[in-house]
Specification:
This protein is mainly alpha-helical. It has helices spanning 15-19, 53-56, 59-78, 83-109, 117-128, 135-147, 162-171, 185-188, 191-198, 200-220, 223-243, 267-272, 279-284, 300-310, 322-342, 358-366, 392-396, 404-407, 416-423, 434-444, and strands at 114-115, 314-315, 355-356, 371-374, 377-380, 426-430. Mean pLDDT is 86; it is low at 1-28 and 473-480. It is a multi-pass membrane protein.
């Protein structure tokens, strides 16, 4: 799945996709909402006003995401928290979080590995316990998020604000027609996915509330604590944690692989999301079962998938070759380097320098202008004479002469920094065939016979490859 999305105004949809029937339309499929009629204008097509604002709100989601946690917090005031219940709530938080990260995300949305039926059932059950929608609904939106990252077709585009990408997109109604189309035929063929979608409310009640309550109640008699802490408040925590993949992971951190879109890598996001924090990597290599590629980076989702593989529960773990990963990293480094290079003064490009007669050069130098010719390039050092590290006398000795040999070891073997500094003072090129020689030399610096330029079209000048650097000083125009 490509992670670089076309910008607004570009051909955002693959023409082959347009020909496909809408994934919402088929009656044989488990649809998100039976009342949805694609022909009627959607509420989101109308502006929000004082009269209709409540119609824009998805009240069911408000209840699931905000209402239940508020009730849980109120109930917690009267409910003592026992250590056993706390530990159980934490374990169940981890399990239901894995249901989302290893199940919904890496298994179903990205098919980054394959799972046996028992593992699928486990992930569909605990993923349902996280109360974040069905696998089918979640994965469909997530595939659109990858396909159309940061565009209007991205269901949780961070360009609409951090809070919107975190939960605003669920609290406010969305137009199903706006969200980019994706192929979910594989999910419609997966009986576990279809069953979970059709029985979603039952799964939520059973795995979100009843099961954690039963464990604490039957286990150590803490029915109320199990319900409040391992049920309600644990749902709140796991929801907020996994929502961070859509918000924090597109907002905080570095972009080592590509900075054209918003996904970022950060340890804090990784800690909050069971390892989904290396999101710049993930958007570049979405079908890799890993998010963190270095062993010490926190990615318990990856570790779990690996353990399941050892147990024979997971197989076909997909992984990009490190050669491909490093290529992306190098290109991004190169881009940063080019940006940095573009901010520096490398002197007037040789092609833009005026051509000067040798006699004119000597004449101007005699009249008091501090001109020095090195390798056929004329430099105006008038303002630099007093600052010359080798003293005024030395630099003055070169004025009005061909100082190529002097500069390149005849008198003093100038440093790389000196060649760089000299290039910022260049004002002309000597005529007499020599300017052609200079350009030829500049070309010859590159093995392939042409000047290497960065992405901004600026010539890349490597250390030791400045045009004034002459290993064996050649006869200049003046001497010839
Ligand atoms: Zn993302
Ligand atoms: Zn993803």
């Amino acid at each position: 799945m490509p992670s670089h999305q076309p910008a607004a105004g570009m051909m955002a949809v693959d023409p082959d996709f347009v020909k496909q029937p809408s994934p919402m339309a088929k009656t044989t499929e488990p649809n998100r909402n039976k009342n949805y009629d694609p022909k009627k204008p959607h509420i989101t097509d109308m502006p929000i006003t004082k009269k209709n604002w409540y119609k824009h709100v998805n009240w069911l989601n408000v209840y699931f995401i905000l209402g239940i946690p508020v009730m849980g917090m109120v109930a917690a005031v009267w409910t003592p928290l026992y250590l056993k219940t706390f530990v159980w709530a934490f374990i169940y938080y981890f399990a239901t979080g894995l249901g989302i990260t290893a199940g919904y995300h890496r298994l179903w949305a990205h098919t980054s590995y394959s799972a046996t039926l028992p593992l699928k059932i486990f992930l569909a059950a605990v993923g349902g316990g996280a109360v974040e929608g069905s696998i089918r609904w979640w994965s469909r939106d997530h595939r659109a998020h990858h396909r159309y990252t940061d565009t209007d077709k991205d269901p949780y585009s961070v360009r609409k604000g951090l809070l919107y990408s975190h939960l605003g997109w669920m609290v406010m109604k969305q137009n199903p027609k706006r969200i980019g189309r994706t192929d979910i035929s594989d999910l419609n063929d997966d009986p576990v996915v279809v069953w979970q979608h059709r029985n979603y409310i039952k799964v939520v009640l059973a795995m979100g509330l009843i099961f954690p309550t039963l464990v604490a109640g039957l286990g150590w008699g803490d029915w109320l604590g199990g319900f409040v802490y391992a049920g309600i408040l644990r749902i709140f925590v796991v929801q907020q944690a996994t929502f961070c993949v859509n918000s924090l992971a597109h907002w905080l951190g570095e972009q080592p692989f590509d900075d054209r879109n918003s996904p970022r890598d950060h340890m804090i996001t990784a800690f909050a999301t069971l390892g989904e924090g290396y999101h710049n990597f993930h958007h570049e290599f979405p079908s890799d079962y890993r998010n963190a590629i270095v062993w010490y980076q926190y990615d318990p989702t990856k570790w779990s998938i690996w353990v399941w593989k050892q147990l024979g529960l997971a197989y076909d773990l997909k992984q990009f070759r490190s050669n491909e990963i490093e290529k992306g990293r190098v290109q991004q480094l190169q881009k940063k380097l080019d940006q940095k290079r573009a901010t520096l003064d490398w002197g007037t490009p040789l092609e833009q320098l005026p051509v000067m007669e040798w006699d004119d050069y000597i004449e101007q130098a005699k009249n008091g202008r501090g001109l020095i010719a090195v390798a056929g390039v004329v430099h105006d050092v008038t303002d630099f004479i007093k600052d010359h590290p080798g003293g005024k006398a030395m630099i003055k000795a070169g004025i009005g002469k061909d100082a190529t040999a002097m500069f390149n070891g005849g008198v003093y073997y100038h440093s790389n920094a000196a060649h760089n500094l000299l290039s910022t003072m260049r004002v002309g090129v000597i005529r007499g065939g020599c300017e052609v020689e200079i350009w030829k030399k500049a070309h010859a610096d590159n093995k392939e016979g042409k000047i290497v330029k960065d992405e901004f079209g600026n010539r890349i000048v490597r250390a030791g490859a400045q045009v004034t650097k002459v290993i064996e000083p050649t006869a200049s125009a003046g001497a010839a």
